[in-house]
């Protein structure tokens, strides 16, 4: 017997309205403060890079074998992106992202900022929990949780897509150390080699959706 699908908690119109209200009433006000350097606003999310084959478009008249590594090694990056200064802070590991990882990231953010700080993040359990909320309160950090199903409002999601495209797509790494180093190198080169490419990508312009967009998605 298959699983019984649960009815959605919100309608399409309710999701669209929730995103619009969040952007207008909560996100834009703190970004306005950040633009005049009265507040630091970081967009926070984790990326889980699993070593394997990352294909791009390949056209070939004969059978083509793509090299790949065995195993399921995973490199986790919990990152924070300052939407105005473009400063990036990250914590990495090879096990899992937990509330302890989030607490470590907040400590690093607090050590780099002097003005009031807001983190924009989703509702992952390791972020929306008592330990993280208590540490944020101790550090004087405001946690601004996104509406459900709103990756379009989290700027750092674009950075993870860019990293996969630059460092992983169509590339083969013989071992996990090389794989991990390629990701780190891509992220380290953001203010230099990738600066121009990210200038138009990592803006504070957000894609929003009308009812027709949701229905065709």
How would you describe what is shown here?
Residues 71-179 form the Tc1-like transposase DDE domain. InterPro entries: RNaseH-like_sf, RNaseH_sf, Tc1-like_DDE_dom, Transpos_IS630-like. There is one protein chain. The protein is α/β, with parallel strands linked by helices and 217 residues long. The chain has one domain: 2-Layer Sandwich (Nucleotidyltransferase, domain 5), CATH 3.30.420. It is 39% helix and 17% strand. The chain is built from seven helices and five strands; from the N terminus they run H-E-E-E-H-E-H-E-H-H-H-H. The protein has a five-stranded mixed β-sheet, with helices on both faces. Strand 4 (117-121), helix 3 (130-139) and strand 5 (141-145) form a beta-alpha-beta unit. Helix 2 runs parallel beside helix 3 and helix 4 (156-168) crosses helix 5.
Helix and strand pattern: HEEEHEHEHHHH
- Number of separate structural domains: 1
CATH class: Alpha Beta
Task: Kindly state the percentage of residues in helix.
Answer: 25-40%
Alpha-carbon distance between the termini?
A: 29 Å
Low-confidence stretches: none
Largest sheet: 5 strands, mixed
The CATH homologous superfamily is named Ribonuclease H-like superfamily/Ribonuclease H
What amount of the residues lies in strands? 15-25%
CATH structural fold name: Nucleotidyltransferase, domain 5
Give the radius of gyration: 19 Å
Contiguous helical run count: 7
What is the strand tally? Answer: 5
> Largest sheet, order of strands side by side?
3-2-1-4-5
Which class do the helix and strand fractions yield? alpha/beta
- Described by the principal axes of the CA atoms, the overall outline is globular
For the residues shown, what is the average pLDDT?
Answer: 88
| Named CATH architecture | 2-Layer Sandwich
């Amino acid at each position: 017997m298959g699983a019984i699908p649960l009815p959605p908690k919100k309608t399409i119109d309710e999701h669209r309205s929730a995103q619009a209200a969040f952007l207008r009433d909560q996100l834009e006000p703190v970004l306005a403060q950040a633009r005049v350097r009265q507040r630091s606003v970081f967009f926070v999310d984790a990326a889980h890079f699993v070593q394997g084959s990352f294909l791009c478009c390949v056209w070939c008249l004969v059978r083509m074998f793509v090299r790949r590594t065995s195993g399921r090694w995973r490199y986790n990056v919990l990152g924070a992106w300052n939407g105005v200064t473009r400063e990036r802070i990250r914590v990495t590991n090879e096990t899992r992202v937990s509330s302890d990882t989030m607490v470590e990231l907040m400590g690093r953010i607090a050590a780099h900022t002097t003005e009031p700080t807001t983190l924009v993040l989703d509702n992952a359990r390791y972020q929306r929990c008592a330990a993280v909320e208590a540490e944020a309160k101790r550090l004087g950090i405001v946690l601004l949780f996104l509406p459900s199903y709103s990756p379009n409002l989290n700027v750092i999601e674009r950075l993870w897509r860019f990293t996969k495209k630059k460092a992983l797509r169509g590339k083969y790494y013989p071992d996990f150390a090389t794989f991990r180093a390629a990701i780190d190198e891509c992220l380290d080169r953001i203010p230099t080699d990738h600066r121009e490419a990210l200038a138009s990508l990592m803006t504070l312009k957000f894609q929003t959706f009308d009812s027709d967009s949701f229905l065709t998605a």
